[in-house]
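This protein record is not my work; I was only asked to verify it. Take the sequence as given and treat only the tokens as open to question. I have pasted the whole thing underneath without changing anything:
***
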Amino acid sequence: MYSEWRSLHLVIQNDQGHTSVLHSYPENVGREVANSVVRPLGQALNMPSATGSESLLKTDKEVKWTMEVVCYGLTLPLDGDTVKYCVDVYTDWIMALVLPKESIPLPVIKEPNLYVQSILKHLQNLFVPRADPGSIQMRLCLQVLKAVQKLARESSIMARETWEILLLFLLQINDTLLAAPTVQGGIAENLAEKLIGVLFEVWLLACARCFPTPPYWKTAKEMVANWRHHPAVVEQWSKVICALTSRLLRFTYGPSFPPFKIPDEDAGLIPPEMDNECIAQTWFRFLHILSNPVDLSNPAIISSTPKFQEQFLNVSGITQELNQYPCLKHLPQIFFRAMRGISCLVDAFLGISRPRSDSAPPTPVNRLSMPQNAAVNTTPPHNRRHRAVTVNKATVKTGTVSTTHTSKVQQQASSTSPLSSPNQTSSEPRPLPAPRRPKVNSILNLFGSWLFDAAFVHCKLHNGINRDGSMTAIATQASVEFRRKGSQMSTDTIASNPMFDASEFPDNYESGRAEACGTLCRIFCSKKTGEEILPAYLSRFYMLLIQGLQIADFICHPVLASIILNSPPLFCCDLKGIDVVVPYFISALETILPDRELSKFKNYINPIELRRASINILLSLLPLPHHFGIVKSEVVLEGKFSNDESSSYDRPVTFLSLKLRLVNILIGALQTETDPNNTQMILGAMLNIVQDSALLEAISCQLETNGGENSLLKSHSRTNSGISTTSGGSTEPTTPDSERPAQALLRDYDTAAGLLIRSIHLVTQRLNSQWRQDMSISLAALELLSGLAKVKVVVDSSDRKRAISSVCSYIVYQCSRPAPLHSRDLHSMIVAAFQCLCVWLTEHPDMLDEKDCLKEVLEIVELGISGSKSKNSEQEVKYKGDKEPNPASMRVKDAAEATLTCIMQLLGAFPSPSGPASPCSLVNETTLIKCSGLPTINKHSFRYFVLDNSVILAMLEQPLGNERNDSIPSVTTLVRGTSGRFAWAQQLCLLPRGAKANQKMFIPEPRPTPKNNVGLKYTVKHRPFPEEVDKIPFVKADLSIPDLHEIVNEELEERHEKLRNGMAQQIFYETSIDQKSEEEWRKKSFPDPVTECKPLPPAQEFQTARLFLSHFGFLSLEALKEPANSRLPPHLIALESTLPGFFDDLGYLDLLPCRPFDTVFIFYMKAGQKTSQEILKNVESSRNVQPHFLEFLLSLGWSVDVGKHPGWTGHISTSWSINSCSNEEEPEQDEVISSEDVGASIFNGQKKVLYYADALTEIAVVVPSPMEPLTDSLESSVSDQENDSNMDLMPGILKQPSLTLELFPNHADHLSSSQRLSPTSRSKKVPQGRTIPPMGPETKVYVVWVERYDDIENFPLSDLVSETSTGVETTANSSTSLRSASPEKEVPVIFIHPLNTGLFRIKVQGATGKFNMVIPLVDGMIVSRRALGFLVRQTVINICRRKRLESDSYNPPHVRRKQKIADIVNKYRNKQLEPEFYTSLFLEVGLNNCNP
């Protein structure tokens, strides 16, 4: 920079301005003259009474003569007062340039510049080191420095020549004292900080008032290079350059750039009058005034200055070893501080700096080369400055790793200054680099050469060539052998081995090297989306990573820790070729994460922070094996780090072969992790890898069954031979055997099922041991188990049973904890466990087919509801009726009841034939009336009863006309319970189903017709007596009665004839009558209807409500009586439906949802956008968005029509509507799918939304768009008919079922529209007469697709809150303060950024509080395209679940419904007496109220 200019070095050397005439005389003459002359002047100044007196010197001649004497007096020994008087006089006189006083001679006041220039040259003599300096010289030097400081600050009449001489004076005295090797306790050591401080401050003042010419800058640069062995030089330089940078950034990047905050004391160094151009010029020159800071790592360069060389030759003329100088042992500290200063500047340019507690950089503890009894830290611990930039970086490196000679005292001191600030907790978010930051290339052009050189300090590079070329091949081999023995050799061993010099084992320079490595990592991690970085920088950076991540022979723990700490986002930045370092990072993670103690790191770093950074890197590496498959990683520098032929770095490996190692690290990390936040990150990663494996296998199987011949995809299948061959010896971790994790690579991780089983085993084991006390880990573990339940992989029922069993055991443990430990948080954990149980049961309903599993689950439900189990041991059984209900809390009881409802009503019955949108019947009174078509039926035709104060029965006795046999008693019942509304159509069934299905009514069996013509008919004359009677002989007595003819006469004969005729007539008459009657009988039908016994005809009119209640046992005398000692109503009561408001309250009850409902708002943010309107307009056309965005949308849910959808739609005004489903008479409006491209805005909630539901929750996915009139949007989109591949994508996507959803693939509706809400207003109006029930806390999540990652800072969250109303925030119970209580910052936002590799980078923000970290998506995670939809949906469900857990106002759906039913009972109960109640059952319903 100054090569064309000459240095003033010779000018300074040849200047004799500091010599006096008295130097020509003998020494005693000069001393006597000086003593005599100076004493009266000094005494006159020091006498209080003489403060206002005039000076003794009046003329120019007198003054000049006196100055010659004073000049000589300044060289005298310090034993008398002469030197002090000389200093007093001169410090008084130079104030002539500030404020003239009477004590100053008149000539000096008249020509102050001329005299001050001479005085400054004379004052150099004071700073010449004395033989025995003592404290007097230091005090006098400080007096002069303060005077000079005041002169420069306050003088307004200083000429340029005076400024230049002042600068040369300061350079000269600094060089006089500081250039030589430091003497312990000498004046140079004590004065260094003040000397440098005054020099730099005065120099800055000169820049503002009289900018130094290039020769001065060149001279300063040359001289400062000679003083760098003083720590104060680098410290003061760091202060000044930081202060300049703070001002520079302010005008270079504007007020929106994050300010670089520095202490006020440092900021005061910069004169306020310096203009921007001057600041910029001064900043660049000051940046380079230290020359190359990396020289500080090389004692040979630092000790090659003339003063050092002089000293070498002064000792008997023999050159001494460099290391004999104690000052050189401070070089590691100084090197570190220089790197720290550069690191501060880099952070300031990146916009990620934070305020610091004071101005001094932290002092690293001296390491190997430091005497054990020396002070280990020059800064008191409470003043030590901690960096809090991005992750906690490798800052204070303490306690050597390579020696065992570090004293215990030193290690204790090191623990007080850890690498990270002790008060910076893990919850402190890592700041993102400023969006307006400079490009990576620009920063590296400024600082790159220094940082790269520092990062490779004392590193052996390829083929044993050292950076300085001094290493030989023999030394390389020997050093490899040496380092293989581990890092326990002492310095004595090194010193005694002539083959090694101290520079070969520079462990004490690790801290500076680590700082440089960490800074470079931060620079590359700040790459903007789409930014290009020069290949030279990238290649050198990858070389640095490969060198620093060595875990075998050349391991350097500080550097390794620094790289890991500063590289979490490294694989998320689309750096070209970054994947070549993946194997090296994996090896490093294998060293760190499975190591529980991290004993080799904990001396100088917070192990929790190191593990967190390692887990972040692991999260970004996990998807790579599946994504790249059999692609091979390039080999970098074969044979570079080891002479071992079997080194894994010598051969390329496929990414797929790295999967087992990554999974092994993940599981090892979970087994050794103790920090809650770190554990939750691992749990999130576990679900990610399991789900990704499962989806990949499903795709592979699908391709195989479809005959797919794609070898690349087939290679991803689990039968791939690449894994079994290459994941053996060649990809084993290269850690030495003693340090390798005990857990070997397990083969069963190879399949999704094996991974799932292993995950279940690990999580369930820890859930019931280490984790059950910690709420945050417990919640995350339960969320992981819930997610694993949804992974579509076939596993053995015993593994599923293990998961259910462990959750049950967890609930038992938490419920059994002592009463003082029961808190809201504890009960939240129990509620979450019940919810997890429900997920497992609904996803695997066949688990309850196993008796022991069913018994265990029901026992847990009983425990939750009643507070204890009926069967506590084998002998004791306590029946439910005998127990006092004593649940852990009402929330726990409610959760247990919800689980019971899930078991009894949902298992195996979801989704119902009507679809997953509603678990209830899509039928109510209005629908039944419409369906019946009978004019006599109206809403008053229903009878309403309440059972057990919890179930409302609405009974319609009239047949609906759709029964097969109307004569059979039927009743249509609407059952409204705590779990929903269900419609049952019931018939009284008296015969088997197959018996005479068509007969209309009961008819008895017909009789057979009589057969009268059967057999022969004989005419038989009947005798009164048997024939034997005639054979009996008569006796006289028999003959005593005469026969008739013996006594007959004529009279008798006549009578007899008359009688005979009468008898004949009678016989004839009777015979004719018999014949006639016989003829008539023959003519008659059989049987005789008059005489036949017939059954009674069946009843035609039924009071089916009464029959139903009676048959079911509800209609008993006991059921109608009020229970004793209870406020509860009877078991059966009637409701009075004629009371006003009854049907409104029923509608209100129907509006209470049966499942929790969540809302997701999707935004698409193009590069560079900042306003909400720009963001909303992106979704109006699919040409504006990336194709993967549309695919992602449809992986979240299926398309539904808002007007016909019976579930949640994203706004309360259009949700849970069932009566619009049957508007078939309305003609279909024109199809939206037409030639124009409407993009994703079709899902803006007006006509369509995306919807997802399972048995336990429902989610509406809304894509907000600008609310403009429909015609305008059509015209604008039709006017631009470009041929675009995305344009044809949307209609096809909307028409076909979603291919990416695991559940209900057939429920994607065709696009059809319903009535359009007002397009001009964003706030939807609730339909008239529709009361909105209170819904609890508003659960909504924003998902933002960002094309450029840096735009996350500019996302206008507060502006978009108004575009995302769900209507819940305005309901009755969500008091209006809810909006103000939860500001926009607390709305959870999931940012998705697509990477060039086809993977996606996740950032989660906004979830605060103790329920903050929700899995599976965590900040910094990378996910695959396959798993993105599932993981986002699962995260949304978990975020909303936690929000409900945290809310005090939230009640589960069944509780809210129960409360509303009780309210309806109280308001509309029919208070009839028992006789009246029975009478009403026999009366026709609605006789007096036929009008609807």
Remarks:
- The longest strand covers residues 1157-1165.
- The mean pLDDT is 75.
- The radius of gyration is 50 Å.
